[in-house]
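FW: tagging you since you asked about this chain on Friday. Here's the raw sequence from the shared folder, copied in full. Didn't touch anything.
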Amino acid sequence: MPETPLFAALARRRSVPARLLTIPAPSGAEREALLAFALRVPDHGRLQPWRLITIEGTALAAFADHLATCLATREPAADAARLDKERARYAHGALVVAVVARIDAGHARIPAQEQLLSAGCVAYNLLLGAEALGYGAQWLTGWAAYDPAVATLLGLHADEHLIAIVHVGSIREEPAPVAHADPAACVSAWTA
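HL: got it, structure written out here
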């Protein structure tokens, strides 16, 4: 295995569940560097088909309350425990970044899929950047990523889609190890 700092960071990358994250999260210059790094992604045509919305501090609790309200409207049978679980999801990490894909579906040269993939790379770069800075992170979606009321809550436009809610913070507790994909099972060679 190559012995470079970049390769080492990539080799150890793993998701840390949001419930295992705590304060502090990146702040100041470190936070600015993380967000700038996140935006250094392949971007065919330089469309910048993405944007970020940060949620932190007291806004996290307010956001969690709004999500619980949206969930109660979406699923009237949701019990108090389910609503509390939704609120608690935002009580652990100190920084949440909503990654928004801004898709120009009618673009003459750049397909919507390429724009969406570029936005996905932004979310992944947040995970890589957090790892490189010594933090943990988790990319979540769930029902909230597809709910029109949550889109309205975040102020999304008709051409925008919430594709990731990335939690970033200090690792309070190491996550359980997980098995990684076996390249032998996933990689094949095309031959003519």
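FW: The chain has one domain: 5-186.
HL: agreed, and The domain at 5-186 is CATH 3.40.109.10 (NADH Oxidase).
FW: great, closing this out.
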